[in-house]
Structure formats: C-alpha cells, structure tokens
Amino acid sequence: MSAESDMEYSDNDGDEYDYYGENDDCDMDTIDKSKSDPEYFEYSCLKVEEVEKLLNESIELLSNSLQITPSLAKVMLHAYEWNAQEIIKKYKENANEVLIYSHVKPRTQVAQVGTSRTVCAVCATNPAPNQFSGLACGHYFCNDCWGMHFEVQISQGVSNTIQCMAQECEVRAPEDFVLSHVPNARLRERYQQFMFKDHVKSHPELRFCPSPNCQWIFRACTGEGAWRVDCAGCEHLTCFSCGAPHHAPTDCATIRRWLTKCADDSETANYISAHTKDCPKCQICIEKNGGCNHMQCGSCRHDFCWVCLGDWKTHGSEYYECSRYKEDPNLSSDSQHAQAREALKKYLHYYERWENHARSLKLEEQTLACLKGRINEKVMAGEGTWIDWQYLWDSARLLKRCRYTLQYTYPFAYYMDVGPRKELFEYQQAQLEAEIENLSWKVERAETTDRGDLENQMDIAEKRRTTLLKDFLEFNTTSASSSKV
C-alpha cells in the first residue's frame, strides 16, 4: 500500500534540471537578484564561435605587442592562464624569464639544417638535408619522425603541451610547427579541437558545461567562490568554481570529501536507501511515491515523518528535531569500537537525509509534470487560464529550489565542528526543512481556493532558504575560490 499522493513513483535517473526555474518562460524572479539572491553570480553563456573570438583577441594583442607569431602567443598565453597584460609586463622586465617559464624559445620557426647533419637521432636514417627540422632549442630530427611523434601525441589527446623529442627537453612545439608535419586532415582537425579545449580549460574565466553533448561555455564576469551557473542550453545547474553540480551552502572542498565518502561507504549505506518502510502505527508496508516527507498511511490514516518515523504532530515549525544529529554524551573515549560505531551512526544520519532529499527531487520532477497536466485539464475545462494557475506552477518550482538547497546542507552540517555556529546552522536548517515539507504537502493537494495560503507558504520557505544562505554561503567563499580544477 502506498501513502496518499497524486504522484506515481519513478526511479528514472536524470541530470540536474532547472531547479531554480530561471530559464522557464514564466519567470517568478522579477526583482534585482544581485541584492536579493545570496547565490547571485554574474556570468554569461557563450557559444563556441564567441569563445574563439574572445581567445583570438588575446592572441592578437600579445602577438602584436611582442612581435611574435600567433602560435607562439598561444603557448605563452596557455602557460600564463591567458593573462596577456601580465605577459607583456613581465616580458618587458625580463624576456628570458617569460620564455623559460613558458617552456618556449624566442625562435620556434622551422630551422633548416646544413649538409653536415645527415643522420636522424631517432630513426638513424639519413634523409636529404632539407628533410630535417627543429625548434630553436637546437634539437633536430627528420620530418618523418616529427610527424610520427605528433601523431602519437595527438592520438593520446595532447595538444598544447607537446614537447620536443629530445630527452629532458621541455620546449613546446607551437601550433604552426605541429601542423606543418601533420598532413592528415582528420588528425589536424582533431588536434585543433584539442587545442581549443585546452585553451578553455586553462582560461580562469571559462568553463565548459559538464553536461554530455552540450556545447555551451560559461564565462565568469565577476567574483570568486562556489557560484551557481545555469546553462542556457541544457539548463544544467553547475558550480562554476569546481564544475560539479551546484552545492551551496557546502563549499567545493567539502562536497568532494562528502561524495568520496559516500562512494567509499556506499555498500554500508545500501540498506537505508530502500523506498519502503513500515507504518509506525499499524506496521503496514508503505511506499514513498511523492517528494513530501509528511506521510499519511492509507490504512490507518496515521500522519508521520518518513525520515525518522516520528509522529508528524511533533514536527512543528519551531524546531525540526529529526534533522539534527545528537552526539552520544555517554560515549567512552577509550573504546575504539564504540567510537567507530558512533562515527558510522553519525554518517548514516546525514547520508539518509541527503539521499532522501535527492530521491524527493526526482519524485518532484513527476510533480511538475503532473501539475502541468492538471493545469491543462483545468484550463480546457474552462476553470481559469494559465495565468490563474500560475501560482501553482511557481510553487512547485520554488519547492524544488528549496529542496535542492536543503539537500546540500547535510554535507555542510556533517563536517561542521560542534559549537554555537553549528547550532545556529542546524536551527535554520530545521526551519527550512519544516517549511519545505509544509509547502510540499500543500502543492500536492492545492486547489484554486488555496492560492493565498500557498503563496504565503512560498514566501516563508524562500525567506528561510535565503536567510540560511546569506548567513553561511559567504563563510565558504574563501575556501571555495581556490578549488577550480
């Protein structure tokens, strides 16, 4: 038997969708986000052509300023994270230092060798003298060996960092030198694709959208930290700083630790990830088929919390106790076994809640689809227009936004040190969780007469969410800003 819900359960996996609703046609955010949204981050979504133009501007600037080839300018820009002004400044102070740091030499054009050089040090053949070439490092090899060397490197995905063939020589081969030795059109195209990807990855303001087959590229306009980016193409929600799914209020380093721990302990935690539990009153098996954690047994009508199985009446808005982890005051510091058991108990407490909200988010994708169908039915039946039902659609989107934030509060809380700051965080986390469950319950059962009550609940839930982020997101900015990979 299932708990009462309008939704059917589905375990289809999917990418992060537009939980923040900022790419929908019906945008509920009409105020200045830079002032109202603690996650606000100025960025732009660019197409490949726009990024190529941006990169070419830096290449042209450096090439003209230092009177070097565009290929050499690319090597230097890649080494200095595309800071053309810094390269120009340092070059004027000490040209050799810049060139050595970039692993290049002043003259990287093909060098023809005189008749005294007749044997290639790699293949030990003696081709015609005009078949030898090399970089300004002074290491010369036959053109066939250069071509084979480049083909192997390109096939392995190497582009910007292809080095001279001589042992322990770090001089890099610029693009024009490589292309002059690679006649295969397909391989040349592949090399240039790798070059472009390497350029984007080395540019501190650029990041590829991590979604498979998505061609959009993000450009940061200001700020540092674990900032939220919504892809204009696939609507994937990403942390610009580390490239992972957006994870505020948890910082980049902490979310990596948490995900690694979850992967390592996945077998231990498997038993808590089942989708069915027994009703705490009548013991009948119940399946969770909606995002709301406020469950009502279809048999005995008992209201309880899915997470802790406690009576729902005890889950008031003043404090949501089941979100907190209570340390054992009687734990003996001398017992390693007891400490290990307590550590596992603590981890499972946070993991269960993390995983539960992840499942709820997937179930609430079903809620959105169901709501769209319900609204269409109402409109077709003459019971109002889409505008009249807009509040219901907005409330479902806001619910996803709040639950997404709430999910990522659990890794944050798990690693926090015990003290007043953690107590404040858990209090705000509990307030947010209580309001989310109230909102979820109302969204799944809303009618036109519930508009005022639902909009009031939306306002309360969003205020809880932004208050928590304003108090704790800024706290993580410093540690997150150094996490870009």
Instruction: Give average pLDDT, whole number.
Output: 77
What count of structural domains? 2
The largest beta-sheet arranges its strands as 1-5-4
What is the beta-strand fraction?
5-15%
CATH topology of the largest domain: Four Helix Bundle (Hemerythrin (Met), subunit A)
The CA-CA distance between the termini, in Å, is 48 Å
Assigned CATH class of the largest domain: Mainly Alpha
Question: How many distinct helices?
Answer: 16
Helix and strand pattern: HEHHHHEEHHHEEEEHHEEEEHHHHHH
Shape: elongated
- Biggest sheet descriptor: 3 strands, antiparallel
Q: How many strands in all?
A: 11
* Subunit arrangement of the protein: single chain
Protein name: RBR-type E3 ubiquitin transferase
EC number: 2.3.2.31
Catalytic activity: [E2 ubiquitin-conjugating enzyme]-S-ubiquitinyl-L-cysteine + [acceptor protein]-L-lysine = [E2 ubiquitin-conjugating enzyme]-L-cysteine + [acceptor protein]-N(6)-ubiquitinyl-L-lysine
GO molecular function, one term: ubiquitin protein ligase activity
Can you describe what's shown?
By secondary structure, this protein is mainly α. It has 16 helices and 11 strands. Helices cover 46% and strands 7% of the residues. It has 2 domains: 229 residues, Four Helix Bundle (Hemerythrin (Met), subunit A), CATH 1.20.120; 155 residues, 2-Layer Sandwich (Herpes Virus-1), CATH 3.30.40. The N terminus and C terminus are likely disordered. The longest helix has 45 residues.
